[in-house]
Amino acid sequence: KNKAVATPTRTKEILETYGFAFKKSLGQNFLIDVNILKNIIEHAGIDREAGAIEIGPGIGALTEQLAIHADRVVAFEIDQRLLPILEDTLADYDNVAVINKDILQADVNEVIAAQFKEGQPIKVVANLPYYITTPILMKLLMGRLPVESITVMIQKEVAERMAASPNTKSYGSLSIAVQYYTEAEVSMNVPKTVFMPQPNVDSSVLHLKMREEPPVQVENEEFFFDLVQATFGQRRKTLMNNLARHFKESMDKQEIRKRLEAAEIDPGRRGESLSMEEFAVLAHYFYEK
Ligand code: SAM
């Protein structure tokens, strides 16, 4: 039996056999460390019952470990050149389907309905292509897919922003967007040396546990997220300044001051000090049907 795909020697061998050249533009950095993969699978809570969705299987390093530990694996890969390689590296597993599609174009709900058992616990697990980390995660979150969790290797700095708490350097509108849908946690930091080729940035594994309900109630989600973004607009500026800019067409400063008073939020504060609950209160007092 072959050694695992995720070793330096086997990976080099596969790349040579197929004359595969990495495409930087597709964020191709393959994992070459089985221990890291086992840790990811553990953090993801993958077990025999689980259905796994992978984004970007590459030559199958993570796919293989998912095939071993999960009930079924469905992987979306955009690069057609990888299909014959995956057929080869995953030949021993009959519980894997590879779909040759751009994840941003794919109808993931339809794939879930077609590929997994009714009621099967589904988890997304991936070493994401870093150039589209945020669009991919926002698509999965806003699509309200029937998945339990998302566990992904991403750029360390982005993972920190997504999981950040108020009054930290990393806290911003991305923290609110992600934490509105999930409970976010950085599971571990990962050195560059476990990738081939090595990326220029540091990486972390981010675990997102889907919430059944949003943590706050808002009248209008789009208005809420726009308002959050506006209050972080210029980080050094006060709430008052950022709101005045955001509502310059519809409200004067006096009106803004009045509403902040009603919301019991000090106009001199900065966006970075507001909790999700306070943003929801703010949105409530500024929203007009
Ligand atoms: N899972 C493999 C591993 O860990 O070794 C490869 C991870 S590599 C960081 C990212 C993978 O995502 C590549 O195989 C790349 O071709 C694929 N990819 C890039 N953009 C994609 C997209 N829009 N949809 C699906 N896959 C994509």
UniProtKB/TrEMBL annotation:
<feature type="binding site">
    <location>
        <position position="102"/>
    </location>
    <ligand>
        <name>S-adenosyl-L-methionine</name>
    </ligand>
</feature>
<feature type="binding site">
    <location>
        <position position="77"/>
    </location>
    <ligand>
        <name>S-adenosyl-L-methionine</name>
    </ligand>
</feature>
<dbReference type="GO" id="GO:0003723">
    <property type="term" value="F:RNA binding"/>
</dbReference>
<keyword id="KW-0489">Methyltransferase</keyword>
<keyword id="KW-0698">rRNA processing</keyword>
<dbReference type="InterPro" id="IPR029063">
    <property type="entry name" value="SAM-dependent_MTases_sf"/>
</dbReference>
<dbReference type="InterPro" id="IPR001737">
    <property type="entry name" value="KsgA/Erm"/>
</dbReference>
<protein>
    <recommendedName>
        <fullName>Ribosomal RNA small subunit methyltransferase A</fullName>
        <ecNumber>2.1.1.182</ecNumber>
    </recommendedName>
</protein>
<dbReference type="GO" id="GO:0052908">
    <property type="term" value="F:16S rRNA (adenine(1518)-N(6)/adenine(1519)-N(6))-dimethyltransferase activity"/>
</dbReference>
<comment type="function">
    <text>Specifically dimethylates two adjacent adenosines (A1518 and A1519) in the loop of a conserved hairpin near the 3'-end of 16S rRNA in the 30S particle. May play a critical role in biogenesis of 30S subunits.</text>
</comment>
<feature type="binding site">
    <location>
        <position position="56"/>
    </location>
    <ligand>
        <name>S-adenosyl-L-methionine</name>
    </ligand>
</feature>
<feature type="binding site">
    <location>
        <position position="29"/>
    </location>
    <ligand>
        <name>S-adenosyl-L-methionine</name>
    </ligand>
</feature>
<keyword id="KW-0808">Transferase</keyword>
<dbReference type="Pfam" id="PF00398">
    <property type="entry name" value="RrnaAD"/>
</dbReference>
<keyword id="KW-0963">Cytoplasm</keyword>
<feature type="domain" description="Ribosomal RNA adenine methylase transferase N-terminal">
    <location>
        <begin position="36"/>
        <end position="212"/>
    </location>
</feature>
<feature type="binding site">
    <location>
        <position position="127"/>
    </location>
    <ligand>
        <name>S-adenosyl-L-methionine</name>
    </ligand>
</feature>
<dbReference type="InterPro" id="IPR020598">
    <property type="entry name" value="rRNA_Ade_methylase_Trfase_N"/>
</dbReference>
<keyword id="KW-0949">S-adenosyl-L-methionine</keyword>
<dbReference type="InterPro" id="IPR023165">
    <property type="entry name" value="rRNA_Ade_diMease-like_C"/>
</dbReference>
<dbReference type="InterPro" id="IPR011530">
    <property type="entry name" value="rRNA_adenine_dimethylase"/>
</dbReference>
<keyword id="KW-0694">RNA-binding</keyword>
<dbReference type="InterPro" id="IPR020596">
    <property type="entry name" value="rRNA_Ade_Mease_Trfase_CS"/>
</dbReference>
<dbReference type="GO" id="GO:0005829">
    <property type="term" value="C:cytosol"/>
</dbReference>
<comment type="similarity">
    <text>Belongs to the class I-like SAM-binding methyltransferase superfamily. rRNA adenine N(6)-methyltransferase family. RsmA subfamily.</text>
</comment>
<feature type="binding site">
    <location>
        <position position="31"/>
    </location>
    <ligand>
        <name>S-adenosyl-L-methionine</name>
    </ligand>
</feature>
